[in-house]
Design goal:
about 375 residues; mainly beta; Porin; eight-stranded antiparallel beta barrel
């Protein structure tokens, strides 16, 4: 049996050596090094099977498996697998798998997976998976997944996911998801989700979800702590701070039967507004010092010259401080609804009165600590 295997192996090797000598358009390349092989590099040659340590080929239509690397000057149609790096000077159609990097000079069509980096010179269609960074050329469609960053040139479409950032030079159609940052140089059509910020330099048609969202023009929805558009918005902003160049940033000083002393910052747009506030001496506790923070979002409508009405919903976090005892817990929260009447004496000064209702509740158990009407009054500056 051993003799038969030895004879068979010898026959295969002889065929591999003789075949390319007889016909340069077809062959088997068994390669120890780029010039130590059964099929030396020839600009007219096509390889169908390549196995070795490090190989240099003109064109591969088939399977290439190398321990270190594979360099193909022309197109690669088939499967290219290596322990370190794959290089296809032309277009890759099929599957590229490398421990470190895959590089395609023109286009990549199919699956390209690398432990560190994938680079495509022109464009890609298919699935690109990179341990660190995926870099695409002008036109890319399909799926790009990387541990660190995806970077594409002019146009990209499909789905991009990265641990840190996705960057597209001009336009993107589809969904971008990253741990920190998404950037589109011109137009974004679809969904952006980022742990920190989404930036669309020109026009957004779709949805942005992140801590901070920016678009020059937006047609859709921005959801985040801070949302900003520079020129035009057709849609909604949902966040702690919703702003644009016409947003008025105003200071509020007010008090009432709920919290004695409050100061807040109001971000007021044409109709919608949000308020971030800090208060002290909650009237539902003992007479000792307490502190609270609050957030309110609402809608304001002008009624007559200088007179407007508004309504908002709010959330308040309360630190009871030294008021804590057997009945009063260390922390409480309140859900509140308010209706406001405001009169503006000048562009930078107005007064307002508020009526509403609030529920003060426990964090650690169900039920209300207190509930009742809210009556407040104050001034608005700037």
């Amino acid at each position: 049996m051993k003799i038969i295997k030895t004879i068979f192996t010898a026959a295969v090797l002889m065929a591999a050596v003789c075949l390319p000598a007889q016909n340069k358009s077809a062959g088997i390349n068994l390669s120890f090094w780029k010039d130590i092989c059964t099929q030396p590099y020839d600009s007219t040659q096509t390889t169908y099977v390549n196995i070795g340590l490090l190989s240099t080929l003109n064109r591969l239509n088939g399977v290439g498996i190398n321990a270190l690397g594979s360099v193909i000057h022309g197109d690669m149609n088939g499967v290219q697998i290596t322990g370190l790096a794959n290089l296809a000077g032309g277009t890759m159609r099929g599957v590229q798998i490398a421990g470190v990097s895959n590089i395609s000079g023109d286009n990549a069509v199919g699956l390209s997976a690398a432990g560190l980096v994938n680079i495509t010179g022109d464009g890609s269609k298919g699935v690109i998976i990179s341990g660190l960074t995926g870099i695409g050329g002008d036109n890319n469609s399909g799926v790009m997944i990387s541990g660190l960053m995806n970077v594409t040139g002019n146009m990209a479409s499909g789905f991009q996911f990265s641990g840190v950032s996705n960057i597209t030079g001009q336009s993107f159609n589809g969904m971008m998801t990253s741990g920190l940052l998404n950037v589109v140089g011109e137009n974004m059509n679809g969904l952006q989700i980022a742990g920190i910020a989404n930036i669309t330099a020109k026009s957004l048609n779709g949805v942005q979800v992140g801590l901070c969202n920016y678009a020059t023009k937006a047609h859709g929805l921005q959801i985040g702590l801070v949302n900003y558009y520079r020129e035009d918005m057709k849609g909604f902003q949902l966040g702690l701070v919703n702003a644009n160049p016409d947003t008025r940033v105003q200071m509020m000083v007010y008090g009432g039967n709920n919290t004695a002393a409050n100061i807040g910052v109001q971000f007021k747009n044409q109709l919608f507004y949000t308020i971030l506030g800090v208060g002290s001496f909650d009237q539902n506790l003992n007479d000792k010092f307490s502190i609270s923070t609050s957030y309110r979002a609402g809608l304001a409508v002008p009624v007559y010259k200088g007179l407007s009405i508004s309504g908002d919903l709010g959330y308040q976090h309360i630190e009871t401080c030294s008021n804590k005892d057997e009945v009063i817990p260390r922390r409480l929260y309140a859900l509140q609804a308010r209706a406001n009447l405001e009169y503006q004496f000048s562009k930078k000064f107005s007064i307002f009165a508020t009526g509403g209702y609030g529920l003060t509740r426990y964090y650690n158990k169900s039920g209300n600590f207190d509930k009742g009407a809210i009556i407040e009054a104050g001034i608005v500056l700037f």
